[in-house]
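Help needed: design a sequence for this.
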């Protein structure tokens, strides 16, 4: 894929190499810096601050066993493992049948789950705070419900008490005798008396009354010599 020079040949003949330019540049830089020769050297380089490019299954294995490691970013690319056979080899159909059978009875899924998905026994579980659950906040909702219920009971009692007092007051007002407003005090009495006096004087002027002699005689039959008594008005 690469020529003897450091320049990547995909700059000239892209159609011959189905690999993009950025992958070639990354590989050229990795070749300049060098590759690790063992697992211990890889972990040492990572602890020293280096960034390691490796296959996804191997990176998952290291992360599962070394709790300080972390994967970041997306995958650079995806390529499948393959086995090369001669054309029209009788082993081709045999390999295909075996792979299909392993996929059909979930053998590959079982092996993948055994060695990759559940291989985290060396690392402790991270405590993730998921917030308050219903059991922790249930008391708050119960308190709010009790407060609402007590408020409704107090409101109903106040309404009933108001109607009872209002009805009692209306009954008391209906049983009381009516009260007349006080009459204003005026000075019309002397004028009335004066008017009556003037009317009497006018009447006496128009209809003069003659004086009559009224004689009241009292007789005492026991004394024949008793004289009569005369009174004049």
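Sure. Designed sequence:
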């Amino acid at each position: 894929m690469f020529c003897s020079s450091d320049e990547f040949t995909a700059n000239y003949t892209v159609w011959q190499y189905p690999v993009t330019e950025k992958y070639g540049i990354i590989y050229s830089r990795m070749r300049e810096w060098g590759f690790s020769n063992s697992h211990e050297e890889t972990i040492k380089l990572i602890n020293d601050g280096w960034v390691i490019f490796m296959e996804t299954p191997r990176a998952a294995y290291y992360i599962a066993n070394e709790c300080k490691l972390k994967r970041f970013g997306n995958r650079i690319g995806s390529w499948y493992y393959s086995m090369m056979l001669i054309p029209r080899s009788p082993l081709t159909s045999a390999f295909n049948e075996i792979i299909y059978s392993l996929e059909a009875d979930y053998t590959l899924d079982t092996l993948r789950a055994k060695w990759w998905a559940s291989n985290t026994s060396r690392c402790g579980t991270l405590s993730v705070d998921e917030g308050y659950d219903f059991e922790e906040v249930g008391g708050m909702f119960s308190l709010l419900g009790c407060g609402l219920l007590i408020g409704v009971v107090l409101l109903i009692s106040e309404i009933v008490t108001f109607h009872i007092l209002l009805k009692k007051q209306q009954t008391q007002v209906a049983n009381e005798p009516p009260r007349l407003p006080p009459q204003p005090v005026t000075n019309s009495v002397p004028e009335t008396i004066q008017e009556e006096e003037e009317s009497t004087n006018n009447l006496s002027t128009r209809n003069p009354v003659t004086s009559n002699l009224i004689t009241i005689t009292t007789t005492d039959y026991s004394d024949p010599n008793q004289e009569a008594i005369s009174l004049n008005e």
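Confidence is low (pLDDT under 50) at residues 1-18, 203-217, 226-233.
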